[in-house]
Amino acid sequence: MIIGVDFDNTVVCYDRIFHQVALERGLIPTTVPASKQGVRDYLRSTGRENDWIEMQGHVYGACMRRAAPFPGALDFFQRCRASNIQVYIISHRTLHPFSGPAYDLHAAAGEFLDEFGFFDPRRIGLLRERVFFELTKEAKIRRMLEIGCTHFVDDLIEFLTMEEFPAGIDRILFDPNGNHPADPRIRPLRRLKEIPSWDFLSLELRGLDFPVRRAASWDEITSMLLDSEPAPISDRLLQSARRLMINLGKPGDVSLEALEGGTNNRVFRLDHPSGRYLLKAYFHHPDDPRDRLGVEYAFSSFAWESGIRSLPRPLASDMENHLGLYEFVPGRKLFPAEISDSHVEAAIRFYRELNQNINTPAALAMPRASESCFTTAEHLRCGGRRIERLLDMDAPDAIHRAALDFIRTGLRKAWEEILDGVRRRMSRFESDPDESLPPPFRRLSPSDFGFHNALVMEDGRLAFIDFEYAGWDDPAKLVCDFFGQPEVPAPMRYFREFSLAVAGDLPEPERQVERMNILLPVHRFKWCCILLNDFLPIGRHRRQFAMDLRAESLLEEQLSKAREAVRSLSPEMAEAT
Fold first, then answer.
1. Contacts of 227 (CB under 8 A, 6+ apart)
2. With DSSP H G I counted as helix, E B as strand and the rest as coil, what are the percentages for the chain, rounded to 5?
3. Between the CA of residue 568 and those of 172, 281, 386, 447, what are the distances in Å?
């Protein structure tokens, strides 16, 4: 969850000040309601628009010291900090008033925040880097998108219902004076569980968009956002699940329960009178055009039709809504300390079964794996592309700046050392780094293959899962990923056994094992970069889609893991045995 909050008339209450200043200047009678809107409406109705404009600049500048936060606002920010939820102030505020003295309105707002302890770590502890005063509404929207807001609180219904307002952001109208009691643009909804038909299948929310919800106080907003129940299962998703079961020849009612663990997609247990199934809603985004559903479903179908049973059986798919229906395999994740000879043998057997009939039309029709590498140069670009993306990332706050500092120093230095060592050692294999791996050396790969994508079933056997990046690849990359992924790392004592098993049917297997050994640091480095993906916009979108919204705590955790992973990299690592 990443919450954006407007500043003027949302965090700061000006009702008393506007009324007092208008009375001091003799602009209104005492009968005018003591609210900003009451003063504004009176002045406009009496043809004094210019007085209203000039008074706004005076209040937002010289009178900021007389303002106060709305009741409950400070508590909301403190609760966010205690819950480790990212919250930003993003406001449309001109630098100087349109009329009257040229007060610095941004500086005045900053002084207000200082005065009420927003930046004091003993009180609210909001980072200064999380406060933005934008000169236009369009810039305000761009900032919301850049930060990745999932919720936004504002006092202006006109802003929340702008055509340009991003779909997929939960919009909350702060309306303490009840100015919008029956606006048709507002849904009288409170908690997440009361919102019907949320469409979690697409970041574009092709069905019902998030409605505008109205809150009369900050206590209501705190209840809405911080005391909310888990996001409900959408009606659209339930309807799509029913259609999939009907297509499978199994009509009837279904129920869905969200399962934990997905970081890219959303996964559900589907209960039906005929049994339990697994429903997977796949992430998709214009900045990540990979067909995750199409690849995984085709690969799983190929494996199942080849007689392989150590994976969930694919049952049905809905390409339009990015849904896949699979056999439900009861099981648990494997712990690193329990990896044994039998687990490594199961992984070897799975690889060999996949590649026992690679010359069949079905096998030859499989696509290249995502980020497949058929030349040395492509292997090196795997790491190079990732660190370049990380070096270009924005650093809007302290945790992003810490990550960028680490990337520019420790991570980049490790990459330069790896590049130098791999190029020197690889020169004995081929003179041209762009020389392509001949087809007889290529193999079908599950990709992202490792014990992090395996389940221990009730009988102790392993089931392998997650084939969104699968296809034809260099078997050296499969081996390097198997030992490079950091989540449930394969012990290096199995490196020679596993690499020999993969290279066993290749020409000159010992030579291929040495080549795998040389390329291993490249892909271990790549995984160091992957740990930092959540600092990039597309990584953030994936986490949001998967409803994994641990925000800053996740970033700190991933940065810590990346630092530790880089410390494990050394020139000696290329001598793995």
1. none
2. 45, 15, 40
3. 46, 35, 19, 23
Token duo for residue 562: 């990346």
DSSP sequence for 177-190: T-S-TT-TTEE---
Beta bridge partner(s), residue 174: 215
pLDDT at 295: 94
Strand partners, 171: 152, 212
Q: Token digits for 183? A: 């606006």
- Residue 314: phi, psi to the nearest 5? -75, 135
- Beta strands (DSSP E) in 48-134 are 68-69, 86-92, 131-134
The helix (H) or strand (E) run that includes residue 79 is helix 73-82
Q: Are 451 and 334 in contact (CB under 8 A)?
A: yes
CB-neighbour burial class of residue 367 (10 A; exposed 0-12, middle 13-18, buried 19+)? middle
Distance of alpha carbon 107 from alpha carbon 90, whole angstroms:
15
d(CA 266, CA 259): 8
**What is the full DSSP assignment across 33-60?**
-SSHHHHHHHHHHTT-HHHHHHHHHHHH
The answer to whether 311 and 303 are in contact (CB under 8 A) is yes
Instruction: Give pLDDT tens digits for 254-296.
Output: 999 888 655 567 889 999 999 999 999 987 766 667 789 999 9
Q: What is the pLDDT of residues 108-162, one digit of tens each?
A: 888 888 888 888 877 788 888 899 999 899 999 999 988 888 899 998 888 888 8
Q: What is the DSSP letter of 569?
A: -
Closest to 548 (Cα-Cα) out of 264, 321, 145: 264
Q: Return d(Cα 230, Cα 191) in angstroms, integer.
A: 10
Per the CB < 8 A criterion, the answer to whether 334 and 347 are in contact is: no
Are 144 and 169 in contact, with CB atoms under 8 Å apart?
yes
pLDDT value of position 206: 31
Question: Which class for 547: exposed (0-12), middle (13-18), buried (19 or more C-beta within 10 A)?
Answer: middle
Looking at residue 571, its pLDDT comes to 45
**Rounded Cα gap, residues 231 and 222, in angstroms:** 16
CB 369 within 8 A of CB 447: yes
